[in-house]
Amino acid sequence: MAQHQVNYTQSGGLPVALTTVDKILNWGRSNSVWALTYGLACCAIEMMASGASRYDFDRFGTIFRASPRQADVMIVAGTLTKKHSEFIRRLYDQMTEPKWVISMGSCANTGGMFNTYATVQGVDRIIPVDMYLPGCAPRPETLQYAVMLLQQKIRKESANKSQKPKRLV
Amino acid sequence: MMRPYTPKDNVQAKAYYTDRFWVAPRIAEEPVPKEGIYAEDLDALSAKCKVLKAYIQRGQLVIHIDPKDNITALKTLKEERWYEMLSEMSAVDFLAERGGFEVFYQILNLNTAQRIRIKCFVDENEAIESVNPLYRSADWAEREMWDLMGVKVNNHPYLKRLIMPDDWEGHPLRKTYPLEGDEFAQWYEVDKIFGKEARDIIGPENRDPARIDRYDTERFARLGHEVPRGTPPEELKKLEEEGVVTPVRYQEEEGVFLVKDLNEEPKVLDKRK
Amino acid sequence: MQQTNKLQPFFENLEFEREDNHMVINFGPQHPSAHGQLRLILELDGEQVVRAVPDIGYLHRGMEKMAENMIYNEFLPTTDRMDYIAATSNNYGYALAVERLLGIEDKVPRRAKVIRTILLELNRIISHLFWLATHALDVGAMSVFLYCFREREYAMDLMEDYCGARLTHSAVRIGGVPLDLPEGWLGQLAKYVNELPNNIKDYEDLLTENRIWRMRLEGVGVIDADLAKSWGCTGPILRATGIEYDIRKEEPYELYDELEFDIPVTDTGDSYGRYKLYMEEMRQSVRIIQQLITMYDKTEPELMAHVPQYISAPKEDIMTQNYSLMQHFVLVTQGMRPPVGEVYVPTESPKGELGFYINSQGDPYPYRLKVRAPSFWHCGILQDLLPGCYIADIVTIIGNTNIVFGEIDR
What we know:
The structure holds 3 protein chains of 3 kinds. Chain A has helices at about 20-30, 40-50, 80-95, 105-110, 140-155, and strands at about 35-40, 65, 75, 100-105, 130-135. Chain A is of the alpha/beta class. Chain A is elongated. Among the domains of chain B are: about 35-155, 2-Layer Sandwich (Beta Polymerase, domain 2); about 220-255, no CATH class. Chain B has 8 helices and 7 strands, in the order αββαβαβββαβαααα. The termini of chain B are far apart. The mean pLDDT of chain B is about 85. Chain C has a single domain (about 70-370), classed as Cytochrome-c3 Hydrogenase, chain B. Chain C has 17 helices and 6 strands. In chain C, helix 2 (about 70-80) runs antiparallel to helix 3 and helix 4 (about 110-140) packs antiparallel against helix 11 (about 270-295). The mean pLDDT of chain C is about 85. The chains are: A alpha/beta, B alpha/beta, C mainly alpha. Chains in contact: A-B, A-C, B-C.
């Protein structure tokens, strides 16, 4: 049987790696970014595609959750209409902190091509957005790149402080 | 000086130029042939109610009837001529020209694959009888018609807004309703979620996708006029009047990261790579 | 840190004090198995649904209003966003409606027709694969979801090679198609459609005799012929009730009258019967595409109809001939002016009868455009279909009716 030997005098102490609390918390947070499935319109199909076989979102640690209480990031995929706007705010408020929002696609960013009476002209009128993805609809690669950027952002944040209030609009 | 009058009865987009001598061609309204299925349909219908006008346009029979006869007409066609499917019904807004709506019922006979469009003209304050007992699909179609056009329907089991929220004002598909919505529509989500007092904080909707606010320091960088993020616009204007210019320092001179000096001599290649 | 807002916790859909044991629950508008933004208000007796009220409109983007404010060509990309799973079928439905309004339907060149029909059938395959994937996922078969998306991605690659977009194709123009097929595309397509029947067989092996699948689908969501006709149901839902009605056969458009294919029909009327129809329809689409591949080589390279009054000349003419350039300029800046009149044109989209009603008053803008979307009626039927079934069946029924909210709310 193989025996594991630690030579405490020579290797300078215990088999310990030193880090900061921030780093280890952020390491955990950034590698398990669970997303709330907020599929609203066409972009939802691309969001599903990025979770499906070819693009495989699970390898980033991103798993889609149906409940806002288990989610870290809300991916607003699609057109937000005025009738729906109330519910997006409600679900955003239900998410536990820390939380982030990715606005996916032109419609969610600015209303896109739907410059009409029924469309909210940018989801950032209602909830604060961390990242905007251009495209109509953005490809799954775009969404994956956004999640990678979000991971970088999470790693830079201070883990034990509550999030600063984000600017609306 | 008086402002020029712009008509408010149709605020949809209009052609900005039309030739003075332009006469729009019309799709031919062919007479209904004497024999055939359409002729039999028309005979069966005219036995029961008054047919104002009937013609064939692009292969489909179009029948104009009186709005009071809509139940009779559709019942005759459904039960005697097997037009069993109401594939579509809606209204067209003619409030400006004729003071009412043109309601159409698009029905289909599954056995012969023939389609008929029944049309009737309803005045603005007149209500049309619901055809829900004949075709269940009219349930939602009439609700949608009421919601978007404001055509009143009598004896509908549940006439409530279908598409727009319950507390919406106005009927969006009318020609008098602007595409970008009235004031109520534009502030709907802000009023509902944050309250009217938040209107000043959130600001009006940006309907122009190419708009750039030069005094916005949150979204736009001001190369050569750098100020801290979030500087109020009054200060910016003051700085601009004073002519304060920050000298641009390029990446090459260990200045701002990613701001490259592009003024270098262009390279000329001797031959294509 | 939250911004303060006025939203109160709401219980308006929950009535706590009722005389009977019924419970009112809210489903949606944001529910993973609602296939979009469907809100259902359900009255339950135990696990059984007593009353169901679907609430739609959460994706109403005002497309019909947009159409009234756009010239005819400008509206075409908007139709992509209606049934976003099979975008080309919408583009085609709209283009055909405008062509019939203009009366240039028979002037579309044959090569454009072949390409259009290939794209339509490829979109039917994409849509049906997507339907199977999500429906199986809802019912609990995760692996079928992954397999179907694998096949779907290959079909999307083909679409992307042709038009450059994965989802919102805009691959059809009024009067033809903008591009010829890229080199080697037909070979890849042939490879794909030859491989697809084997994959369809794999899915059937996984599902058809699967005990759970059959228990969840058989006898669930039974729509009889009268209800289907009364609600205006079309497509597979109508054909599952024993009525053989397919617009491709009955009112043929494009090349469908020259092609050989069967219309699968069943009279079970339940979800399982519809599942079998969808699988068979995919096979028929493969058969159609195989015939079209051989037709393509026999066509002339012309792609757009030659109607200078309505449709811009080919690019070479615009660049070389002054009059074509002028026509093109007028058509782009002012738009075409169709004759006064109205048309209603039905086409068979993957979900059912997709019809466009266009009322033209001779202006460059449509006076009224109404979209007859199949999902609208397939969603409306839920209020007659759901009462009497159990909560678990709701997911099956919603998934099986194949509704897409982009086209319900428009």
